[in-house]
């Protein structure tokens, strides 16, 4: 049972738009919300939609450097300039008019979701436009201008949270959030991602365990390319639940990037929508088990904007709202017709990729000849003892 829940959204959040041809197409958020609405997951007596406020400069400055905020605001008035010092105007982070306002709006949405959960107005809250986990205090990175997740976590700490757990399932390492809280033992960051040996941002290895006084608070599972549902879920369950149980968080914050899917064009993992759905269910259950259900879920990466993102995040919103979607559910004809008329594309027919997620539990044995098992073991060996846990199965 999920209890009262909400999604923070208004259509202007899609103003976060790097332009035609950029992988981070804002239509993915619009298609997600349309699908969730057509499925009856949002609106009416289902998941409530609440407006997204604009984050103030004061709020942004709890994480970001004032000079960087000024640079983003200025370049958004003249978007044909390049500011390499602040990572603006690059191929990854092209500038656009109103960049500061659009980015601050996403931060405001995540902080509003955090506020509603922390104050008890909602048990769960989501912001699918958020999850911009690469942004650094003074630099844009990886399609991320402001780090809404980090500002949300900072807000929680500033308003009484003693222990915040952050789990990032994006295919890319959650480097910005990790770096911002690397020396803070109150924040446990866990990132499961394709190894940085193969993929941007090239970081996030088992040896990266947290700074002085916070050793064991940063956790990285660097997965081999080609990892599919069974391997990914094996890694998740071998690492995430034991650490969360030991940490005993006040609230769970998650980044639900769905670019781990086999059809995503920017990475090399091989999950299905069904495997991703299984991870959402597991995180939901852990929130209820460990922190009274307090769960803030954000979006993140995901660049198969028709075939994957809307279905993955509609499943997420269904779980947030206490109305999980049966994977065999057909996608609504109206939603498919909208995609045909708008994009000339054929949309998926069902909410499943036809897989039944299953995995071999870590307790059943570790095979050092398998890259995946070596990756899991390396993470457990690096951080479990620092958290008072036995790294062996």
Automatic annotation (TrEMBL):
Pfam families in the record, alphabetically?
A: Hist_deacetyl (PF00850)
Q: Which UniProt keywords apply?
A: Acetoin catabolism
Q: Which InterPro entries match?
A: AcuC (IPR003085), HDACs (IPR000286), His_deacetylse_dom (IPR023801), His_deacetylse_dom_sf (IPR037138), Ureohydrolase_dom_sf (IPR023696)
Start and end of every Histone deacetylase domain?
A: 22-317
GO MF, one example:
histone deacetylase activity
Recorded superkingdom: Bacteria
The residue stretches assigned to a coiled coil in this entry are none
Q: Is Electron transport one of the keywords?
A: no
Q: Which GO terms describe its biological process?
A: acetoin catabolic process; epigenetic regulation of gene expression
Q: Which family does it belong to?
A: Belongs to the histone deacetylase family.
Question: What protein name does the entry list?
Answer: Acetoin utilization protein AcuC
Protein source organism: Nocardioides mesophilus
């Amino acid at each position: 049972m999920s209890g009262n829940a909400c999604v923070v959204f208004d259509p202007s959040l899609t103003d976060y738009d790097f332009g035609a041809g950029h992988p981070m197409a804002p239509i993915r958020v619009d298609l997600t919300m349309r699908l969730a609405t057509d499925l009856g997951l949002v609106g009416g007596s289902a998941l409530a939609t609440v407006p997204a406020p604009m984050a103030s400069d004061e709020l942004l400055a709890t994480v970001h450097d004032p000079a960087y905020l000024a640079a983003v605001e200025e370049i958004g008035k003249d978007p044909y300039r390049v500011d390499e010092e602040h990572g603006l105007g690059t191929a990854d982070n092209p500038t656009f008019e109103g960049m500061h306002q659009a980015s601050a709006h996403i931060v405001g949405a995540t902080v509003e979701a955090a506020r509603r959960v922390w104050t008890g107005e909602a048990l769960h809250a989501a912001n699918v436009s958020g999850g911009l986990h690469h942004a650094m205090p003074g630099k844009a990175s990886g399609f991320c201008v402001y780090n809404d997740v980090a500002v949300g976590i900072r807000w929680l700490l500033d308003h009484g949270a003693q222990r915040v757990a952050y789990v990032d399932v994006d295919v890319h390492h959650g480097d910005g959030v990790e770096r911002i809280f690397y020396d803070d033992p109150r924040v446990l960051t866990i990132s499961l991602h394709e190894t940085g040996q193969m993929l941007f941002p090239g970081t996030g290895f088992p040896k990266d365990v947290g700074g002085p006084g916070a050793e064991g608070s940063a956790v990285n599972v660097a997965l081999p390319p080609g990892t599919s549902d069974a391997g990914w879920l094996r890694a998740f369950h071998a690492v995430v639940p034991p650490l969360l149980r030991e940490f005993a968080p006040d609230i769970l914050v998650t980044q639900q990037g769905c670019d781990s899917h086999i059809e995503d064009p920017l990475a090399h993992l091989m999950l299905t929508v069904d495997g991703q759905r299984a991870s959402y269910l597991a995180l939901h259950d852990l929130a209820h088990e460990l922190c009274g259900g307090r769960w803030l879920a954000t979006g993140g990466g995901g660049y198969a904007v028709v075939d994957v993102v809307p279905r993955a995040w509609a499943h997420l919103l269904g779980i947030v709202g206490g109305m999980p979607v049966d994977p065999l559910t057909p996608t609504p004809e109206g939603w498919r017709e909208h995609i045909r008329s708008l994009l000339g594309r054929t949309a998926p027919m069902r909410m499943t990729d036809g897989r039944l997620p299953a995995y071999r539990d870590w307790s059943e044995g570790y095979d050092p000849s398998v890259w995946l098992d070596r990756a899991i073991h390396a993470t457990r060996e690096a951080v479990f003892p620092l958290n008072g846990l036995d790294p062996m199965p």
